[in-house]
């Protein structure tokens, strides 16, 4: 098990790492290296990050959509999400909890780009490589929580990434998929900026450079909601 609890968070410490009865525990927040947090999650709308992300299901079950692929994740499952990949998730039962590790773009450069990988441990027994990822993740969390020396923490981050690279397979996405995703991102950005105004699917599709029917189909795939349902979800009640 990992060295913290989401279901029984303690009171706030001097570091501000925990909040009583919040169902949310911030393990580390350092925008130059990585953000790590554990939380009970019901739904997370389509979004993307400039650097990779590693998620682990601590409790319950989730449906996660990455690009146009839908995955079912249960307790103990882990998934690596590449930089800039659109993803969303929904809890399939009450009390479902995630551990999220968001790596920072500051960890990578032109000579050492972020890994583009296809890797998850979903729906199968852990392989030795999967177990190594989990063990290195646990070591990183221990170092963050115990506030080890900065260089030890940085080393643990890169060792975790190395384990993920060893466990995963290099991948390259098709140009057509990247094109569709870029247009969907334009649509999502437009909705997020104008959700408090009257919006139509035709207007958003036009802004994205897609046909009405193609945008509608792709949007449902990446968000798991149709356009009207999504607007209802993101607009303040």
Task: Describe this structure as you would to a colleague.
- GO terms for molecular function: DNA-binding transcription factor activity; sequence-specific DNA binding.
- This protein is α+β, with helices and mostly antiparallel strands.
- The protein folds into 2 domains: 34-170, Jelly Rolls, CATH 2.60.120.10; 175-234, Orthogonal Bundle (Arc Repressor Mutant, subunit A).
- The protein contains 6 helices and 11 strands.
- The strands form 3 sheets. Strands 1-2-9-4-7 form a 5-stranded antiparallel beta sheet, with helices on one face. Strands 3-8-5-6 form a 4-stranded antiparallel beta sheet. It has a two-stranded antiparallel sheet with strand order 10-11.
- The chain is globular and about 50 Å long.
- It starts with 23 loop residues before the first strand and ends with a helix.
- 27% of the residues are buried.
- The model is unreliable at 3-23 (pLDDT under 50).
CATH topology label of the largest domain? Jelly Rolls
End-to-end C-alpha gap: 38 Å
Which CATH class of the largest domain? Mainly Beta
Helix content: 25-40%
């Amino acid at each position: 098990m990992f060295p913290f609890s989401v279901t029984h968070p303690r009171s706030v410490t001097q570091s501000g790492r925990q909040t009583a009865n919040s169902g949310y525990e911030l393990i580390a927040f350092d925008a130059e290296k990585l953000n790590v947090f554990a939380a009970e999650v019901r739904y997370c709308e389509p979004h993307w990050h400039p650097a990779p992300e590693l998620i682990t299901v601590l409790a319950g079950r989730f449906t996660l959509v990455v690009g146009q692929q839908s995955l079912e994740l249960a307790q103990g499952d882990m998934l690596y999400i590449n930089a800039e990949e659109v993803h969303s998730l929904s809890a399939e039962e009450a009390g479902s909890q995630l551990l999220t590790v968001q790596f920072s773009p500051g960890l990578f450069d032109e000579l050492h780009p972020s890994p583009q990988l296809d890797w998850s441990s979903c729906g199968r027994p852990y392989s030795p490589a999967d177990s190594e990822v989990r063990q290195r993740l646990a070591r990183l969390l221990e170092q963050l929580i115990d506030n080890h020396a900065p260089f030890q923490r940085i080393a643990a981050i890169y060792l975790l990434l190395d384990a993920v690279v060893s466990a995963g397979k290099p991948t390259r996405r098709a140009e057509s998929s990247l094109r569709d995703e870029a247009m969907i991102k334009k649509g999502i950005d437009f909705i997020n900026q104008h959700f408090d105004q009257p919006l139509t699917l035709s207007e958003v599709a036009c802004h994205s450079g897609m046909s009405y029917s193609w945008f509608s189909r792709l949007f449902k795939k990446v968000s798991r909601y149709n356009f009207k349902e999504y607007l209802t979800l993101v607009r303040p009640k």
